Amino acid sequence: MLVASLLFGCSKQDEVQKKNALNVTKQNNQLQSLTAGKTSSKAYEFTNNFILIAQSTNSLPVNIESEIQKSGGKFNGKLNKIGLAFVSSDDSDFINKASKIKGVQAVIHDIRAQWFDPNENVVSQELVAESHTGFPSPDDDFYFPLEWGMLAIDAKEAWAKGYKGNGATVAVLDGGFDLDHPDLAPNINLGISQNFVPGETLEFASASPFSHGTHVAGTIAAADNAFGVIGVAPQAKLMLVKVLRDSGSGDFSWLMQGIIYAADNGANVINMSLGALIPHHFQEKTPDGVINETKEIQQLLVAMNRVTTYAYQKGVTIIAAAGNDALDFNHSKDLEHYPSNCSHVISISASSPIGWAKNFATDLDVPTTYTNFGTSGVSLAAPGGDIYPSVTGNCTVVIGAPCYAFDLVFSTGNNSWYWSGGTSMASPHAAGVAALIVGKYNGNISPAQVESILKRSADDKGKPGKDDYFGSGRVNAGKAVDL
């Protein structure tokens, strides 16, 4: 989920140009307040497709395809191993008819949400310099000095000990990707990558200059290739799984299929830098009266929990963005944030420096202004970046960008490298550390063990012990590979 972005438009062929365009994108993905029983708008919509949930958690009813056809539906796909099927129908009474099939627990509408918005408030600015002089921690990947997140999590300490994610495969479930980006191409496994979005391809093809999935993938595993940036786990393999449109919207069924696919095709870690905030109870006013959507929404959580539990039982560590709604999970019991609040998912909040480019010794672990928080919904924290009005002026030591830009996370983007901020950027930092742990153990480690190491090695920030903003702490790569 994107909160703010700075788009640094360097070309792949000539990465340091004085006259490239710098775009600043300020995102505000605060969702409408959702109150049980009433609302004038909502953050999701029912589609004309359906999810059938079987009573069995590991199989579908016998002859389910023919039974669906008899009920006026068309069978579009299934996740038989967890008792889910995907169906379309033009019959207004389909839910009632299909719900009577023997062995069916519920039939619900597939739900579409806007999981992130990459196109809001774009501003342009000319670059006036190309020097990196003065930034800490030089590295032969020439943009590494801009990656304060790697400093915050002690990534270089893990690399110095010989751990770079070799042997781990991370599935990035997101929008489209720049498949030939020079920082990503060495680590992308196209043979096991997959697209679940009808009408689009795995390759990012939006008119928008920002590729959310590409940025996320680079934070996890941009190659250590003396070029551009470097990821937390620069030798991990990337399984790219497109479950959202390039515009950031998508159906829950696409996400469910993506999670199961990743689990069945060798992923050790799943990263989901996406999220939808949906109430447990909801009534919608229509011209025909009030429609109570509560049962369908609650059954959606049942279906999602089946999916994440299956992946967990297959040995996959699942990591997701905690969300950018500045919401206190401890006092929002009627709201569910998908997928971070689903079973066996490690939920990541976002931290940031304030004015890092002006003072490299500044605290890198300030809770961001947008991050969701609360001990009931946050597992760990990681660098996510933010924009602060108090950080003004230009820091000419690097490309003449405004100083506030450098408090965001710098990573790969479509044909270029970009700054961006959000729990979307925090989650891949944590996923990268998980990949380092998996690599150390050559994949012979359970998700429970990975989560335990992440928490035991995390730096205790905020209040001592488990904290509303940091959960069990901010992830630390250098310490994680010692356990």
From TrEMBL:
GO terms for molecular function: serine-type endopeptidase activity. InterPro entries: Peptidase_S8/S53_dom, Peptidase_S8/S53_dom_sf, Peptidase_S8/S53_subtilisin, Peptidase_S8_His-AS, Peptidase_S8_Ser-AS, Peptidase_S8_subtilisin-rel. Signal peptide: none annotated. The active site is at D174 (charge relay system), H212 (charge relay system), S424 (charge relay system). Keywords: Hydrolase, Protease, Serine protease. One of its GO terms (biological process) is proteolysis. SUPFAM superfamilies: Subtilisin-like (SSF52743). Pfam families: Peptidase_S8 (PF00082). Residues 165-473 form the Peptidase S8/S53 domain. Belongs to the peptidase S8 family. This is Peptidase S8 and S53 subtilisin kexin sedolisin. It comes from Solitalea longa. The lineage of its organism: Bacteria, Pseudomonadati, Bacteroidota, Sphingobacteriia, Sphingobacteriales.
